[in-house]
């Protein structure tokens, strides 16, 4: 098997994804433009959605699951009066309603849609049903019957009402919440129908629009692929560990760090910089650090501190031996 082409680049680029391309399209374009060996994204945005799309290179791809699980913030516009097959403006009209709820009526239904709820995903989604994507089945005229799924919606705020037919919301939510479904459900709860017409993600974990580049601000050309220097990147990257800033830090010595990186375990009671005793039996994930440098993530399992996902390997420490005790 041939070795994957490209150079080793580590870090996060936060893209302000435009309307039109898929998230995968943007990853592929930036991976090519950076000449990177490995890249991925931290949470899909539909082609008709824009905003914060975290793109990971190299070591940063190891932290993608923590960005996927992170809290996200969106702004969307609900078009009232038409439901559509895709729950957004791309689909065909399914039903219409002449009812237009007042602002007070809209605000009154929002508490019931907030918190830990059960949400029915859009039939045009990437969920698998009997091994097939739901959107493929829907396009064939056989939309699947998708059961409700648990979802966590922290807050929904009505922020603007441009006219009777539209309402603008800001939402903060956890992993796997479909904004198209939420827009549909707000309309239904108000006794009408609707679909999402504009969707923009403004935050994803620690990343927000202040970190984001527009694609036309990034100079992408073939010359960047042949230069093996970090300062030749089209734009600077955020460190891979930036994705982990919300995870509590645990200071370790170099010797303890080597043990974790090399797959061994530590007695949490014997750490040089002890963690709080009341947390010894918890399933909390810790950010193992030597000084200001993040080695990776660790967790107490079966009474021992063990690596969960490391950003560094043995090369970080050089070729020095470690005495295990």
UniProtKB/TrEMBL annotation:
EC number per UniProt: 5.4.99.25
GN (gene name): truB
Keywords: Isomerase, tRNA processing
Family: Belongs to the pseudouridine synthase TruB family. Type 1 subfamily.
Biological-process GO terms, alphabetical: mRNA pseudouridine synthesis; tRNA pseudouridine synthesis
EC category: isomerase
Active site feature: 46
Record's function text: Responsible for synthesis of pseudouridine from uracil-55 in the psi GC loop of transfer RNAs.
Residue stretches making up the Pseudouridine synthase II N-terminal domain: 32-179
Gene3D superfamilies: Pseudouridine synthase
Record protein name field: tRNA pseudouridine synthase B
Pfam families: TruB_C_2 (PF16198), TruB_N (PF01509)
Residues of the tRNA pseudouridylate synthase B C-terminal domain: 180-220
Entries under InterPro entries matching the protein: PsdUridine_synth_cat_dom_sf (IPR020103), PsdUridine_synth_N (IPR002501), tRNA_psdUridine_synth_TruB (IPR014780), TruB_C (IPR032819)
Reactions the enzyme catalyzes: uridine(55) in tRNA = pseudouridine(55) in tRNA
Record-linked CDD domains: PseudoU_synth_EcTruB
Organism: Neokomagataea tanensis
UniProt GO MF annotations: RNA binding; tRNA pseudouridine(55) synthase activity
NCBIfam families: TruB
């Amino acid at each position: 098997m041939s070795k994957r082409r490209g150079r080793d680049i580590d870090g996060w680029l936060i893209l302000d994804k435009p309307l039109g391309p898929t998230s995968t399209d943007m990853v592929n374009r930036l991976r090519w433009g950076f000449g990177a060996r490995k890249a991925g994204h931290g949470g899909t945005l539909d082609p008709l959605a824009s905003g914060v799309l975290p793109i990971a290179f190299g070591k940063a791809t190891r932290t993608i699951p923590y960005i996927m699980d992170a809290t996200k913030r969106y702004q969307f516009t609900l078009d009232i009066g038409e439901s559509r097959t895709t729950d957004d403006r791309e689909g065909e009209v399914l039903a219409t309603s002449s009812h237009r709820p007042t602002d007070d009526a809209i605000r009154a239904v929002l508490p019931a849609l907030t918190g830990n709820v059960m949400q029915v995903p859009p039939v045009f989604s990437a969920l698998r049903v009997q091994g097939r994507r739901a959107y493929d089945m829907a396009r064939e005229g056989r939309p699947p019957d998708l059961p409700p799924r648990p979802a966590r919606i922290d807050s929904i705020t009505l922020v603007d009402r441009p006219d009777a037919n539209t309402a603008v919301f800001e939402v903060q939510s956890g992993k796997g919440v479909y904004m198209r479904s939420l827009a549909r459900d707000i309309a239904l709860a108000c006794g009408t129908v609707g679909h999402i017409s504009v969707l923009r993600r403004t935050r994803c974990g620690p990343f927000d629009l202040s970190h984001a580049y527009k694609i036309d601000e990034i100079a992408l050309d073939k010359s960047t692929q042949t230069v093996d220097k970090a300062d030749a990147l089209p734009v600077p990257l955020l460190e891979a560990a930036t994705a982990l800033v919300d995870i509590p830090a645990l200071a370790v010595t170099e010797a303890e760090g080597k043990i974790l990186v090399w797959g061994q375990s530590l007695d949490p009671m014997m750490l040089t910089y002890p963690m709080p005793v009341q947390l010894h039996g918890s399933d909390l994930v810790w950010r193992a650090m030597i000084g200001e440098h993040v080695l990776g993530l660790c967790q107490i399992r079966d009474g021992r501190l063990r690596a969960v996902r490391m950003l560094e390997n043995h090369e970080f420490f050089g070729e020095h031996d470690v005495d295990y005790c």
